[in-house]
Amino acid sequence: MICFYLVDGPDGQQMKQEPSVAETESLRPGSMFTWIPQRKAQRLRKVTASGLANPNLGALVTPVPLTLAASVYVSAISKEKRMGASILRLFFHDCFVNGCDGSILLDDTSSFTGEKNAGPNRNSVRGFNVIDDIKTAVEKVCPGVVSCADILATAARDSVNILGGPCWNVKLGRRDSTTASQAAANNSIPPPTSSLSNLISKFKAVGLSTKDMVTLSGAHTIGQARCTNFRTRIYNETNIDSSFAKTRQGSCPRTSGSGDNNLAPLDLQTPTYFDNDYFKNLIEKKGLLHSDQQLFNGGSTDSIVKKYSNNPSSFNSHFITSMINMGDISPLTGSSGQIRKNCRKVN
Ligand code: HEM
Fold first, then answer.
1. Residue 29 shares a structural domain with residue 74
2. Which domain holds residue 119?
3. pLDDT in tens, 125-169
4. Greatest CA span in the chain, whole angstroms?
5. 153, 30: one domain
6. Catalytic residues, which ones?
7. Distance (Å) of CA 326 to CA 78, 180, 322
8. Which GO terms describe its cellular component (predicted)?
9. Count: domains in the chain
C-alpha cells in the first residue's frame, strides 16, 4: 500500500507525490511509533479555515490520509467549535482505559458491553460521528492503514491547534483494540468529585506525573460541563468566588433532577479558545468543577497553577509534552489488535 502526499505544484495546483521509503514506512501497519518527518513542511498543502483561531493547520507534514482527516475535521469544528473540546476529551477517555486503543469508539451490542455507557461517558462524551466521518474519508484513499486510535490522537491535536493552542507531531502506529471494558472506564477515569490526592493517584496509575495531571487539566480551557457535575460545588463549597457561584446558579437549579444537563463553560472567559485562562480562573477561585479547584487550594500543585497563569508559553510547551505522554499510554503495536474498518465495531 502506497499513500501519497499532496504537495503544492508550481502553479499552486495540488500534485501527488510518492513518499520516500521512510515516510511510507511510518504509515505501514505494524510499523510502530515513527515520527512523521517535518521536512517539506512549507510545500505541503495548508488546510485553511477562515474565521478559526489558527488557520495554518496543515503546516506540519502529514501523510495524505491524515491531511484529509484534518480537512474533514476543520469543517466539523467550523460548524460547532465545542466539537474540538469534545474530541479532545474523547481522546483522554480512550487513553485512560487500557491505553490509547480506540476502545471508547466501540458500540455496545447485545453480546458486547463497551465503554460508551460507563458513568463518566454516558450522556456526556460526544463526537463519535465526527470520528466516523474522518475514518470514512481516510478509508476511501488508504484502506486498512490508519487506525481509529491514530485518528483520535491526531484529531485531538488538531482540536487544540484549531482553537488557538499549540501544534505538535503526533506519534503514529497505534492499533485498535478488539475489546473494551466498561468496568475499567468506571474505575480509571477520575470523577469531578476527586480530591487532589485522588487525581494524582489516577494519573499515576497510567504512568502520568502530577505535573502532567495539572497540565492536562488545562484542557478545561475549552468546552462545557453539565450542571449535575458542578451543582454541589456552586451551592455548597466555600473555596469559590461568590459572584461566580451566583452566576452559575442562574442556570443550574439547586434541586437534583432539575436542569441536570444545563451547560456551563469550563472556562468562563474564552471557552472556545485554547489559552491559559483556566489557570487564571483557579487563582480567582473560579474553577467550575470541584476537581478543578483542587489544583489550587493550598496544596502541592498551587505553584504549577501559578506558573501557568503567568506564563502561557510554559503551559503550551508542557501541554505538548503531556499530550504526547498521554498518547503513549499502552499502545497496541506489532500484531496486537487490528486496524478497524469501522471504528464502532471489531472487524
Ligand atoms: C483531571 C481530571 C479530570 C476530571 C475530573 C475531568 C472531568 C470532566 C467533567 C466532569 C467534564 C464535564 C462533562 C459533562 O458535564 O458532561 C469534563 C469536560 C471536559 N474535559 Fe475533563 N476532566 C479531567 C481531565 C481532563 C483531561 C486530562 C482532558 C484532556 C486532555 C480533559 C478534557 C475535557 C474537555 C475538553 C471537556 C469539555 C468537553 C465538551 O465540551 O464536550 N479533561 N471533564
1. yes
2. 23-186
3. 999 999 999 999 888 878 888 899 999 998 999 899 889 899 888
4. 64
5. yes
6. 93
7. 26, 18, 6
8. extracellular region
9. 2
